[in-house]
Structures are given as structure tokens and as C-alpha cells.
Amino acid sequence: MTHIARLNAIRAAMADRGIDAYIIPSSDPHISEYLPERYRCIAWASGFTGSAGTLAITKDFAGLWTDSRYFVQANEQLAGTGFALVKLKAQGAAEYASWLADTLPAGSTVAFDGSLASLAVARAVEEALTPVDIRVDGHVDLLDVVWEDRPSLPAAKAYLLHEQQTGESIEDKLARVRTKLKEKYASAHIVSTLDDLAWLLNIRGSDVQCNPVVLGFLLIADRQTTLFIDANKLGESDRARLQQAGVDVQTYEDAFAAVRKLDATSILIDPKRTCFAMYDSVPPTTKIIEDINPSTRLKAVKNKVEIAHTRGAMLKDGVALTRFFKWLEEEVSHGKLTEIDIADRLQQFRAAGKDFVDISFDTIAGYLEHGALPHYKATEQSNATLAPKGLLLVDSGGQYKDGTTDVTRVVSLGNPTEREKEDYTIVLKGTIEGSLAIFPSGTRGYQIDAITRRPIWETLRNYGHGTGHGVGFFLNVHEGPHTFNPSNVDIAVEEGMITSIEPGLYREGEYGIRIENLVLSMALEANQFGAFMHFETLTLCYIATDLVEKTLLDKKHIDWLNAYNAWVYKSLAEHLTTEEAAWLEEKTRAI
Fold first, then answer.
1. Is residue 443 part of a domain?
2. What is the C-alpha to C-alpha distance for residues 123 and 408, in angstroms, rounded to an integer?
3. How many domains does the chain have?
4. What are the pLDDT digits (tens) for 119-175?
5. Locate the Peptidase M24 C-terminal domain: which residues (predicted)?
């Protein structure tokens, strides 16, 4: 079926059910950012493959609401599909709901599949539509009717990690969560998000591309813990270990029924991380306490074992990146490399190292104007051939058994212009300012975001994405609850958090620049003025200096850059061949 045929089939199903508008979120029953094939509903319906967006379909209009990261991509992918791009004014806002309220007449019906919408999204829709007398039905799955040959749920095996790798046992993690539940006067708790489940049970899998998670729900009660999972995914020894930890294993599909039969006075539910259908399954006699999943906050703070392992993963990643950039420099002059070629080759370099499991997200290899698309992924249609000139942006990461990496570098393939150097240096100043930040305990993400942006703002430049996101331990590369972005006014930076610092600058149709490292939040000193914190940079990959306009840097920026590159060389040299080490030594020479 073409995308227009699929849209027509959805509209026919809407007409059969008396539905005037149908909403399709980018999500699954676990409110995941990255989705199993079965739940890539927006891609199936419209052709848009970005990780953030919402479709709203009426009888005479079909739109994709998404943010500035995807405007160019969406325009390209939606061409000829019957869907139009609607540009969000605020990232993540339910502006489609307001549009429906303004567009549809009173008495209309708007529907969505409640297993694909978070409670927060469902409420935003209801709050916008109910006051204008529009009925909302959150229990309609039209796609299962019209999606022929819809992929089944993944069936790959799952496995448990030893606490020597994780630094904490299943029993201790569950005990810590139960302590938090008691503080909230909750006698039960449902965990839907896959990275929370993975962290709590020290379990990993491969049900979602690039994310080592397994599909499941976890119901934690006062004395009982139940994991709802495809039992065939677990080996006998892992089932025995879970039983030893007090975890009963039941069928994945039984999770909603178990919540409907729940015998508990109260249950804690995270409205942003629980689907509406699960929330709606809670018995009316059970009090619902809404709060963030305790595990979301707990896993964000890495323990000493996780931190030590992560440093090891950074070393392996740094070796792979060094070999990649050396290879790239030597091969680009032949004029045969494409964006897909270099993404594949980088994965090969990573895979050749010890403990590599997968990439942590689809590699962004953006040459020239493609670098200006923050979430670009080369396709056969867009795949650009590299030439020995212009800027190349490479944003990539690896999943290793001992950690998760995410790094962005920009290199010149030849003849950089003065404006390219100026833009690059200004972004580098932002990365350095964020990395050098010293801040009081309790600082929020929006403050780190502003510190990082300041040298960019001073030149009347800016970028349209957040400055940083949390990163998991051999888990999701995007991890909450902490972020360094303007909207994070609630979550404090805590000791032990791993976060990216990745300012950028994008000239549409020309090139993009982003320089990203991962940093570890650490205590610095306490005195009469309070406790202060700083960052330790974890990423090991040289920062190109041939694009630096030294006159735009202060001494502290130059000192940081020279010290960082010297540390990269010292850390990696003994793991490289003589030729590779000599190449890296030249790249990290002080400016």
C-alpha cells in the first residue's frame, strides 16, 4: 500500500466508527522514544521516520506535528503521502489538540489508542477538547484493523547482568524503590518504561534497535514483585535468579488484567511514563498517586562500579573513533565515500573492539547541508558523496557491555572558510564553558544550558535543541529525568549523573556544527557559601584544531582544549598502533 492508500484506509475505518479525528502518537505501551517495528505507526502511516511527532487525521486534513529538529526531514519524507508538516512552536507541546479544538464542530468525536499515549498526553487532549464539547475516546486502535502484515512483537532472548557489572543487586534496587514508595504512602507501583525495568532487574535484551532493553511491565507491591514478559525470552538460570530475588514471572499480555485485579489501597503511577490504557485499568477503589518513577531518579545517579565501567567503555570507543577518523582522512580524497559508507565503517571499527553490542543510535553522518539537520540519517535517496572540501558532522555512539557512549565531532574535509572557522570556534567555546562550569548543589538543567549557550548568544547565534541529555549505563542513550535544556526547571544536577554537553550551530542549506562530550557530575567543595559541583569529561576523542580561530578564544579555552587533547592522546596512545598513535599525536598537538 502507498501512504495515500494507508491514509485512505484509516479514514475509512474512522468513518465506520463515527470518528471525526484520529490521533497517532509516536510511542508504544511503554512510552518509548525508540520503538519496536510493531509500534512504528507514524512511519507506517506517513513515511516520517523521526523519533518525535504526532499525526492528527480528519476527514479533509492529515498533519504531522513535529519540532524544528525535523522540519527539513519531514518536508522531504511527507511529500506525496497526503500528510502535511505542521511546525510546532514549542517542543513536545500538544498543539494538535488545540488545532482540533479550533477546527472541529461541537459534538465531534476524537479518538486515539490509549496504549500508545501517555497519561500526560491523554490529559492534554481531553483538556483541550472537552470544554468545546468534543468527545474523546482513548480506547480505539484503528491501525490493527488496517495495517496488513503488521510486525509481531520481538522475540529475542533476554539476559541478566551480574551485580559485579551493575554494582548493585536486584534485591537492593527493589528495596530502595520500596522505601521511596513508603515515603509516598503507595502500596503498589507499576513500571512501564523499559529502561527503568532493565535497571531495576539488571536485565537486558534486544527488543528495541540500539537500546538493550526487553519488553515487559513490572508490578511492585508491598511483598510481591511481578515481571510480565514473554517467558520464552528467559533461560532457566535467569528465571531462578529472579525467583531468588522475589520476582514472579508472568505472561507479558497479562499486565493490564493484573492491574485491573489489583488489591492495593494505593498505586504510584508516573503520568509521563505510563500509557493511558494502563492508568485506566486501575480499579476505582485504588487511590492513584502520581509521581515520577522512583527508579528513574535512582538510575540517573551512577554508582562507582558503573562509573568505572563507563570509563572503560569510553576508552574502547576512543580507540575506534581514532581509527575511524584516520581512515576517513586517508580515504576521502578518492571521492568514493558516501554518508552511508562512513556510518557503516564507523560501526565496523566499534564492533572490532571488545564488549561491543550495538550502536547506541543511528549514526548521524551529515555532509555539508545535511549537517544542519540535527537528527539526520542518510537514506539511499539522500546519501551524499564526500569530496575533499567542506564540513562533515558525525554524531554516533556505542552500546558496550560496560557502558553507553555518545559523541559528536565536526571535521573539515578541506579548504575551510573563515566563517566555518568562526562558527566552529564559537560552538567549541560553548562546549568548553559548559564543561568548565562550577555550580552550587541544586543547580537545574536550564542553568547549565544557559552557561553553555552564553558565548554563542553573545555572537547573536543560537541553536534549537537542548544542550544535554542523560545517558544510561549500558542502557538508553537518552535517559531522564535530568536534561540540560531551557525547560528543565525542576530536576537538580546530582553527583554521579552522566550527561551530554552538545551545543550546536546550523546554517540551513550549508552546514552544521555540533561538538559533544559526555560529562560526569562530581562534588567539588563545600564551604561557608554552600556545596559546589563540577564536571569530569568522560569522552575520549580528539577535537579538531584546524578549524579553530584562536583569536576568538580566551586563555582558559585554549588551556582546556590543549589539556583535553593531550589527555586523549595519553589515554589512547598505548592502545593504538605506532602509525595510529603518531597520527593522533599530530591531531592533538597544542595550539
1. yes
2. 37
3. 3
4. 999 999 999 999 999 999 999 999 998 999 999 999 999 999 999 999 999 999 999
5. 532-591
Number of Cβ atoms within 10 Å of the Cβ of 224: 11
pLDDT one-digit tens code per residue, 417-431? 999 999 999 999 999
283 SS3 class? coil
Domain that holds residue 388: 304-587
Strands, DSSP E only, in 183-315?
188-191, 203-204, 217-221, 225-228, 247-250, 266-269, 287-290
pLDDT, tens digit (0-9, with 9 covering 90-100), for 277-329:
999 999 999 999 999 999 999 999 999 999 999 999 999 999 999 999 999 99
Q: Evaluate whether 446 touches 486 at the Cβ level (below 8 Å).
A: yes
Q: Which of 123, 146, 169 is the last residue of a domain?
A: 146
Cis peptide before 151 (omega within 30 of 0): no
Residue 488 belongs to a domain with what CATH number? 3.90.230.10
Q: Which residues of 21-37 are buried (b: 16+ CB within 10 A; e: fewer)?
A: bbbbbbbbbbbbbbbbe
3-state secondary structure of 497: strand
Residue type, 69: R
Closest CA to 579 of 313, 345, 322: 322
- Per the listing, cell 572557522 goes with 421
| Pick from 439, 452, 448: nearest CA to 529 | 439
Angle among Cα 486, 432, 52 to the nearest 5 degrees reads: 35
Residue 152 included in any domain? no
The CA distance from 446 to 468, in Å, is 10
By the 10 Å C-beta count (0-12 exposed, 13-18 middle, 19+ buried), 381 is classed as: exposed
Closest listed residue to residue 470, CA positions, set 479, 461, 462, 457: 479
CA pair distance 230, 227, nearest whole angstrom: 10
Strands 403-404 and 407-412: unpaired
Query: Is 337 in the same domain as 479?
Result: yes
Q: What is the distance in angstroms between the CA of the first residue and the CA of the last residue of the chain?
A: 57
Same domain, 255 and 329: no
d(CA 324, CA 321): 5
